[in-house]
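Work Package 4 report. The design task specified in the project plan requires that, given a folded chain encoded as structure tokens, an amino acid be chosen for each position. We show below one input record used in the internal validation round.
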């Protein structure tokens, strides 16, 4: 039996229970989790904002050690340290063939199947194909990425989602260049990673924006040169900081229509606004036809860092080992499975950075 965090239905309390987890089948890998990050997507799943097949084991941002492999597995073996990949590319669909594995049309297939069960026989689905809020999980071979030596196993969990997404938004989607100005809306785990990544890219000014004044110290720790409280005047304040021009790049890491609109307005003429946050389908954003033409800005979304995790994890590990990327600074709370609901409350209230579930603390 394996201890896990189970969501039976949207809006229901999270249950910490024992589940029955079968061994790996052909092409599958069993992992003992070392740690799992608490992501906003997990909160969205509990609230029903993201579609999911229920009941499920939450969690998708994790790292651990391979304990068993099924037949035909060739890329990892027992004892290997790995990062979990919640969106493994099939390498065969049109998006993969076009060189965009982050948009793989089959990446979510694993989340719809049963992989474990409750003691009463009720089948369970792995949240986002991973089920990382558990002491152990079983995933397809494509969902495990070898972790380079030297990177701490617990904090490496963040490489699987927050860090890969935030870093990729800066370096792969927006392609920030040295000397440019960046503004970042929302300072959760992804937003803080965007701050660090903008610094790595050599941005001259990095403006952090959040609704909570408590985030200023955290923002500056991660590379922000200025901090603004989010309100209707934020775009004007950004233009004031940038000599009336606006930021070269804006990153929206909140997932709200008003924040997207503000990020767009804070961007200079010809600049780029990148939406990283996941918003609701009823939350609309509007622009006039004239401003779209006049400002010639680019508005784009970034899914999973717009990069291939197979290539990105070694790249990120290189930055960690060189001291350019600080994973531990992103973690403000190290918790157990039973503390996940409180972590969701902090996240909803905009407090702290990443909460990390650490197993065998």
């Amino acid at each position: 039996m394996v201890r896990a965090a189970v969501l039976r239905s949207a809006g229901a309390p999270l249950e910490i229970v024992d589940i029955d987890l079968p061994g790996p089948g052909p092409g599958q890998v069993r992992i003992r989790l070392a740690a799992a990050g608490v992501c906003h997507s997990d909160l969205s799943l509990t609230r029903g904002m993201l579609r999911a097949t229920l009941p499920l084991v939450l969690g998708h941002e994790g790292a651990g050690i391979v304990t068993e492999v099924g037949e035909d597995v060739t890329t990892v073996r027992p004892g290997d340290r790995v990062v979990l990949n919640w969106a493994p590319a099939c390498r065969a669909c049109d998006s993969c063939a076009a060189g965009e594995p982050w948009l793989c049309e089959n990446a979510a297939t694993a989340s719809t199947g049963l992989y474990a069960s409750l003691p009463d026989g009720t089948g369970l689905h792995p949240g986002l194909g991973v089920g990382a809020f558990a002491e152990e999980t079983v995933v397809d071979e494509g969902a495990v990425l070898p972790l380079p030596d030297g990177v701490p196993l617990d904090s490496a969990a963040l490489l699987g989602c927050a860090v890969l997404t935030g870093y990729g938004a800066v370096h792969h989607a927006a392609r920030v260049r040295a000397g440019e100005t960046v503004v970042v809306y929302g300072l959760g785990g992804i937003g803080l990673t965007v701050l660090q990544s903008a610094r790595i890219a050599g941005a001259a000014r990095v403006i952090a924006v959040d609704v909570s004044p408590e985030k200023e110290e955290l923002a500056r720790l991660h590379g922000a040169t200025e901090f603004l409280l989010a309100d209707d005047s934020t775009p004007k304040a950004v233009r004031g900081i940038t000599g009336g021009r606006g930021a070269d790049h804006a990153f929206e890491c909140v997932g709200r229509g008003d924040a997207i609109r503000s990020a767009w307005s804070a961007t200079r003429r010809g600049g780029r606004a990148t939406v990283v946050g996941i918003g609701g389908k009823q939350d609309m954003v509007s622009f006039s036809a004239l401003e779209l033409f006049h400002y010639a800005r680019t508005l784009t979304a970034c899914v999973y860092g717009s990069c291939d995790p197979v290539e990105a994890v070694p790249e990120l590990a290189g930055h960690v080992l060189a001291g350019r990327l600080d994973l531990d600074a992103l973690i403000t709370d190290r918790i157990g499975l039973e503390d996940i609901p409180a972590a969701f409350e902090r996240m909803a209230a905009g407090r702290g950075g990443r909460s990390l579930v650490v197993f065998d603390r």
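The radius of gyration is 20 Å. Validation will be extended to a larger panel in the next phase.
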